[in-house]
Amino acid sequence: RKIGAAKGKHVPFFTVVTDLASAHRMWFDNNVDKIYLASDSLYKVARHSAAIPEQNIVKTGLPIRRDFAVQAQKLVDRNSPQGSAYQRETKQNLGIDPEKPMVL
Fold it and tell me: Long-range contacts made by residues 49-54, C-beta under 8 angstroms, separation at least 24?
């Protein structure tokens, strides 16, 4: 903000909090232009503990890469016949024996 003021320009100040359940108080500055939050519990912290105005809060959920969402849609229910077939195909594509159990 000091640089923007010195240059006579508005420099937007955004915060993105990607934790779901809790976050350090330092993330919550009530002078932000926008704060992006991953959960309802963080929204409550932002509103009540940090007094961030409602119009400056955006609940986005947890941002993930699109590919993760696409794979989750293909998997559907991992215990369903469709999910089992998808897991088998994925293991084969990765060169993993689909008959062996796998722990990640």
Answer: 49/25, 50/25, 52/28
Q: Name the phi and psi angles at 57, rounded to 5.
A: -110, 130
Task: Identify residue 43 by its one-letter amino acid code.
Answer: Y
**Which one-letter amino acid corresponds to residue 97?**
D
User: What are the tokens at 45?
Assistant: 């912290």
Reported residue count of the chain is: 104
Give tens-digit pLDDT for 22-60: 888 888 888 899 999 989 999 998 998 889 999 999 998
Cα–Cα dist 61/74, whole Å: 21
d(CA 76, CA 86): 9
State the residue for tokens 């809060």. 57
Reading the block at residue 93, the tokens are 């594509």
The pLDDT value recorded for residue 54 is 93
